[in-house]
Amino acid sequence: MKTKIPDGNPSWVPDWFEKRLIEFAVPSGSPEWMRKMILYTLTAGGKRFRPALVFSVARDLNLPEESVADIAVAVELLHSASLIHDDLPSIDNDDYRRGKPACHRVYGEGPAIVIADIMFFQAFALISRIENASVHRDLYRMFSQAAVYLGMGELADIKYEGERPKLESIIEMYRMKTGALLGFCLGAPFLIACKNDLAEGAYTLGIELGTAYQIYDDVKDAIGSRETLGKTPGKDIKQKKSTVLIYWDLAQAVEYADGLFENVVFRLEALGACQTASLLRQMKQMLKTR
Predict the structure, then answer these.
(1) Which residues contact 131 (CB under 8 A, 6 or more apart)?
(2) Which helix H or strand E contains 41, and what residues bound it?
(3) What's the rounded Cα separation, in Å, for the pair 140 and 126?
(4) What's 17-289's CATH class?
């Protein structure tokens, strides 16, 4: 079943995705109280942007959705786990996520850390299920690289608070923190299709897409509301975060991000990923405002 974009709250993943996500998020044998804690953040909503990209590229490559199902679940687990850590008092100190109290506000800081850790481990367990040995090796390498870069980007984000790093350093932080996982989303289906020669190029496009996405997020933090964002706005300024907005005004930032975004769409079309390019065009306004 192909995904569609309905009116109202958009959904770009197959109808069965949420059930699969819940099924594989919780380790087998978990007691009910643990299951409830692990699923709290995952069932709080979210755009499902990353798994949507995985499914979309798979369709461009004429792959069955089932062939990338574990990959799509893994990226959502990794992303959601990173959000739980992001919201912790020692990092971004945000009380809300996806319109609801953040995980640590409901269960406490210690449990929230471990809940996210479990989700990280489950994500890697899913990637390890790929049976083709050569595909598994390359896929695991790309996923591990994306996860490490995500952590490195987050560490840089913390280190740069209150500082004024070079603009190039901020952009590199975005490429790691947000871009690497989007790179995996675009590159992984090419590995499943045994098109390794195109996978790295797609991965690079995802990094550029993630950079644009993060800049849009900076702008939303500056001018958005908790109702539209689902989290507390204005945190970057209060916490003295180093973002591109210490160098650019809002219009300059949006212009740069738009340029990156349009270049990604153009190059995806050149790769033959026309459905994904079209999907991104439809998503663009949402990415800039929600």
Answers:
(1) none
(2) helix 32-42
(3) 10
(4) mainly alpha
Considering all CA atoms of the chain, what is the largest pairwise distance in Å, rounded to the nearest integer? 52
Q: Which of 262, 181, 199, 180 is nearest to 61 (CA)?
A: 199
* Dihedral (CA of 110, 113, 117, 118) sign: positive
Taking Cα atoms as reference points, which of 76, 63, 60 lies closest to residue 13?
76
Residue 237: predicted pLDDT? 77
Contact present, 5 and 282 (Cβ < 8 Å): yes
Q: Which residue pairs, CB below 8 angstroms and at least 24 apart, start in 139-145?
A: 139/71, 139/188, 139/191, 139/192, 142/183, 142/184, 142/187, 142/188, 142/191, 142/199, 142/203, 143/74, 143/184, 143/188, 145/180, 145/184
The parts of the chain modelled with pLDDT lower than 70 are: 1-11, 225-234
C-alpha span between 48 and 72 (Å, rounded): 9
pLDDT at 229: 61
Conformation bin of residue 98: beta by default, left when phi > 0, alpha when psi is -120 to 50: left
Question: What's the pLDDT tens digit per position in 149-203?
Answer: 999 999 999 999 999 999 999 999 999 999 999 999 999 999 999 999 999 999 9
Q: Are 11 and 48 in contact (CB under 8 A)?
A: yes
Q: Supply the pLDDT for residue 245.
A: 95
